[in-house]
């Protein structure tokens, strides 16, 4: 697809973008919050037992571990 | 809609985390175990004669450490479930900006996965390379703050480049990607890592390789589930 037609399709897409209801926005916020919470607990929290259990995966996934 | 987002994120995360965890055990774990021998002082590589190369070619299945390795796979699943939730939320929000009329494609899912890999694994690794146990590093809290800031800034930057629609959005995105690297990651003032650099280099590369594959699986499957459960 050329850059011009891509821009045109994006413009059309903007025109037909559906409005978001407050409950939909809340659902997105909840999912993003849940995602970051899991990342914080599994990947970054420093409780000794969590750190011990997640140690190898934290190193292998590139998280700061120690 | 909440159930659709959560289910697609969790399903995709479980799949990607499972494959990523198994690849991690085979390719990354032997290096990590070797590094721990250097960290604990059982092997020392500094000295005129160096040390004997001590890398297992791959995990020996007879040597599977049930508790430790199962926990590694479970935490890999947990981490990719977290990433999966973020990725489906981003896809849902993007659908509101640029709705796709066609159904899910592997190509589009792979692009989502690569974008996630770039934001959450590759970009932070430019400043803070995946670290072996025993590596020299700055204070943990400052590294964690830099890691999160870089991942978020890079994700926002990619979003601006993909969906901004105006050229200044892309320019702002590129500036955001560069900003955290110009500020720079916190590093130790001294190098005193215990593991040989050969091991550390292999570890960083394999960590990125395994992460890339897991993110590709996460992108394609989350994209598929998100559209399939519509």
| Residue share in β-strands of chain B | under 5%
Distance between the termini of chain A: 47 Å
Tell me the number of helical segments of chain B per DSSP (H or I, 4 or more residues long): 6
How many domain units of chain A?
1
Percent range for β-strand residues of chain A: under 5%
User: Roughly what is the average pLDDT of chain B, rounded to an integer?
Assistant: 89
What profile does the largest beta sheet of chain A have? none
By secondary-structure content and strand pairing, the structural class of chain A works out as mainly alpha
Structural class of chain B: mainly alpha
Q: What order do the SSEs of chain B take from the amino end to the carboxyl end, as H and E?
A: HHHHHH
Shape call of chain B: globular
Helix content of chain A: over 70%
Cα-to-Cα separation, first versus last residue of chain B: 8 Å
Evaluate the radius of gyration of chain B. Answer: 20 Å
User: Uncertain spans of chain B, ≥5 residues at pLDDT below 50?
Assistant: none
């Amino acid at each position: 697809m050329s850059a011009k037609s891509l821009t045109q399709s994006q413009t059309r897409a903007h025109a037909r973008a559906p409005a978001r209801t407050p409950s939909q926005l809340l659902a997105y916020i909840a999912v993003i919050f849940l995602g970051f919470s899991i990342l914080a607990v599994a990947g970054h929290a420093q409780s000794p037992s969590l750190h011990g259990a997640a140690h190898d995966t934290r190193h292998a996934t590139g998280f700061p571990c120690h | 809609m909440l159930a659709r987002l959560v289910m697609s994120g969790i399903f995709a995360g479980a799949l990607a985390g499972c494959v990523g965890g198994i690849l991690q055990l085979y390719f990354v774990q032997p290096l990590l175990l070797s590094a721990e021998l250097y960290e604990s002082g059982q092997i020392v590589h500094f000295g005129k004669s160096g040390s004997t190369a001590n890398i297992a070619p791959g995990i020996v299945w007879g040597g599977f450490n049930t508790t430790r390795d199962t926990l590694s796979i479970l935490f890999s699943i947990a981490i990719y479930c977290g990433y999966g939730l973020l990725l489906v939320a981003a896809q849902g929000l993007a659908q509101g900006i640029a709705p796709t009329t066609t159904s899910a494609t592997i190509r589009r899912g792979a692009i989502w996965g690569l974008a996630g890999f770039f934001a959450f694994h590759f970009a932070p690794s430019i400043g803070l390379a995946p670290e072996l146990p025993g590596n020299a590093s700055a204070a943990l809290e400052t590294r964690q703050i830099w890691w999160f800031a870089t991942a978020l800034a890079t994700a926002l930057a990619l979003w601006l480049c993909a969906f901004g629609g105006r050229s200044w959005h892309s320019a702002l995105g590129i500036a955001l990607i560069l900003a955290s690297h110009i500020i720079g990651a916190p590093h130790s003032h001294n190098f005193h890592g215990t593991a040989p650099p050969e091991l550390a280099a292999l570890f960083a590369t394999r960590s990125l390789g395994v992460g890339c594959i897991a993110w590709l699986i996460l992108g394609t499957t989350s994209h598929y589930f998100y559209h399939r459960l519509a």
